Amino acid sequence: MSARRRPTVLLSGVQKTYGSGDLAVRALRGIDLRVERGEFVAVMGASGSGKSTLMNLVGCLDVPSEGRYLLDGIDVARLDEVELAFIRNRKIGFVFQSYNLVPRTTALRNVELPLVYGQVPKAERRERAHAALEAVGVANRAHHVPSELSGGQQQRVAIARAIVTNPSLILADEPTGNLDTASSREVMQIFARLNAVGRTIVMITHEAEIAAHAHRVVHLVDGRVAADDRTEAVA
Amino acid sequence: MSAAEALRMAVQGVLTNRLRSLLTMLGITIGVAAVIILVAVGHGSQVAVQKQIENLGTNVVSIIPGFSFGRGSGGFRASFTQFTQKDVKALEDKNAAPDIRSVTPIVNGNVTATFGSASYSPSQFLGTTPSYEEARKSPVEAGTFITAQEEAQHARVVVLGETVVENLFGNQNPLGQTVKLNGISFQVVGVLTPKGTNGLQDQDDIAIAPLTTTQDLISGVANGLGQIVVEATKSSKVNAAAQEATDILTPKHSSNGQANFRVLNQASLLQTSASSNHVFTVLLAAVAAISLLVGGIGVMNIMLVTVTERTREIGIRKALGARRSDILGQFLTEAVLLSVFGGIAGVGAGLIGSRFKIVGVQPAVELYSVLLALGVGVAVGLFFGIYPANRAAVLRPIEALRYE
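Structure tokens for the assembled complex are given below, as produced in the milestone run.
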């Protein structure tokens, strides 16, 4: 990879402390991490290792206490609330463990939501949302509400929602945590396909088999990077 | 996010929990309807009083003979007084009473009228002079009122109110017919224009004959006048006319320095009642406004519940790129929607409710109360929606997403 290309994620010396004084919890104790464009990175760690905190920081849901975070070269720490909302909207696609679709809202409408907040005109919105649902194979469920969809289908809708804005980074937090083996495999195949067409994916997981789908596995222990291995992804 | 999108999300929010939304709207509906109906009732009774004032004549005072208690030779005793034609003449003196236009003496009597086989006793029978027509605003609808000539000639003529006509003549034309009053024949010369009820009595249940004739045949000359109606030159001079009348009559009709008569300014009494009515209307509206406020608190309560219930959804929306203003707009629109629909329903309920008589008053809807009630209703929704919506907007996305 060319050194001149901007990394998608560049964390340097990132610390995150919750609370203060004696009650202070140091969730991240100095993380240096560089994710290039097109990489598929799994972040592993036991609970309490700081992976959720890392996910929140990388997803711009929270800001670091110390250190620098550049997303696509933009220094996130300096942004205000409105700008952070903009970054979340344009640069990041979230996939959560519990799907987090908006209830009582159709799959299509759920996928449209980021475009609504991104001021995309209605006709284009509809078209892009359909295309995204198509890409994850649930276009036939477009007009169903989440309670009418299986877990695997809901997670696919969530992935469609994550990719519809064409973000720089797909951020997945335990995306298969609530799924059975078959659905997990399907979801991981979708991630592999997305990565194959050039999408950057950071996935948090505690399952080694799931992490094995990534090209690179970062191990967190006690808020620090303990290992950073490049692997051959399983098909 | 566009306003149309905010509206769409808000509508969905309202429809998600229909029963709850309906009950919340009901609070605003009741408040708005209460304001409209209660203001209409207050205004309606004011209108009724205003009508009575117009019927009475706005520039007359009635002087009624009475009595006073005084310490006499044998201890306390009441002294009675009677008005006579001399008093009428004295009041008609333009030098002593420049503000009095006319003086109308009235005697009362009880008669039973018969026509053919029909018999009826009017609740009022008066003997008076031609000026009564103008002073009491009692024009005739057909025929003529009592003329000065008839009065001078002690003519046996009578003018009847509509109720009397209906009871005696049915559908026949009474003009020119002869009725017997206490067995004495009188010719019907006029029928009064109907006035309806003044709330206490039927003002059309009346028969009027010349003063002279009545004193001759029915009430007796010795019994004096039942009442003297004094008409002022204009309505602003009513108090001056009343004072002049009092000054003229007091020397003749007093004992131990106390006047033996009363001066009733009925128009001003009614005006007092009209203004107390106004106070009443304001009080009613204030009570109604409180229910509107309670409705607003209902909106706030439900919005707080909604925001809490949908904390996770708010977190999702924020993660997808919703700004504070987007969330604020969505929930504020939802609160305003509840109050707008509640308010419109309230206007409908208020207008329908105002069509019915309430405690004997026909409500008169005032446009200002409709606009005010609706406007305040919506403003209440907006005001009480701000706090919950803002609470939603400032939720931190991580915490909102973690909320179970």
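The two ends of chain B are 27 Å apart (CA to CA). Residues 82-252 of chain B form one domain. Further analysis is deferred to the final report.
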